[in-house]
Specification:
Layout lengths: L1 H29 L60 E8 L2 E7 L2 E4 L12 E3 L4 E7 L10 E8 L2 E8 L1 E4 L8 E2 L4 E5 L13 E9 L4 H7 L14 E4 L1 H10 L5 H7 L4 E7 L4 H5 L12 E7 L5 E6 L2 H7 L4 E6 L1 H4 L7 E4 L2 E4 L1 H11 L1
Antiparallel strand pairs: 1-2, 3-11, 4-10, 5-6, 5-9, 6-7, 7-11, 8-10, 11-12, 13-14, 13-16, 14-15, 17-18
Length: about 375
Amino acid sequence: MIASFLRRHAWWIIPLIIFDIFLFRWLWNRGPEPEDGFVKAVPVEEEEEVAVEPPGLWYTHPTDQRDLWNTESTEVYQPTAAGRVESALYGSVRTRSFSGRLLPAFHEGLDIAAMQRDRRGRPLDEIYAVTDGRVAYVNRVAGNSTYGIYIVLAHDDPVGEIYTLYSHMARVESGLRAGEPVQRGAVLGVMGNTASSGIPMHRAHLHFEIGVINNSRFDVWYRAQKLVPDHGAWHGHNLTGIDPLAVFDTREKEIEFSMKRYLRELPPAFTLLFRADRLPDYFRRYPGLWQGSPFTAGAIVMSVSEGGVPLSGRMASLEEVEAMGRDSVRVLEVDEDVLGRNGLRQVVRRGGEWTFGRNGERWLEILKY
């Protein structure tokens, strides 16, 4: 009887069983209804966004000399008249007479020696752009600068515009004019011995710098001081050099080289606290070196390298401002090991305490202008 019933009603029983199976599976996977009557979305784990910094500039050598890490060779570096090869390197490596006293002096670049000379002893070495950029300034008058004949290139780096400077040249390529683009390795001119102070031919060399620009309004400040000659924003007082050899060395070791990270990781030689009515132009053009809250009129704490490069800046705390009293600038901290021989003398020791020096006053005036 049952078999007869199934034969007669199989046409609707079998589809019903199949439907029930699928319904049961759907209800099982769906789970219990949430209390609020809405299906709650299962949270999806999102990948954390990591800011990727654009790659830094790639550098080549400024001359055919490839042995720049051989810092003890007079065939690589051109010493001063004293003959000490370290005098050709970056830092407080020199001694000069100031007001009748012999004091340490700072050298902001590398003095690279000639490799080739003609029969009269004149260098034949060509000078190359170390990275892509544009011509910022060309000085073709040998006697109106201690740099002699020199050229400045500007380079767009993720940290902001940096410069490279090539000086004491015999000549600059005739086609190079301000605003012209240049590629890494492009010939800029020929090594020489030009300078307002005079350099003997046997000590002809390339003085090479890489660094940051203090203030884009420097030319306005310079003219207000009624100073001459006028090299616009590309005067040495407005260009602060970084150790080129250290930059090249770090760039060679780090594929993802970052000038911002390089500067922020340099050890500060001293830290300043100074009053400021507006954010210095320097931190507008190098915003990655500003830390913490946005600027508001008051006072700034700034860390500075041994070479006078502002490494970071931030707003001063209320306690720091109150501690200033009526001072416009105060030296908060000095690392004497980093400061070394203190060839720049932006900070000086008086009566056993570190204070701001005359050189520092001019430098800070330019930064704040």
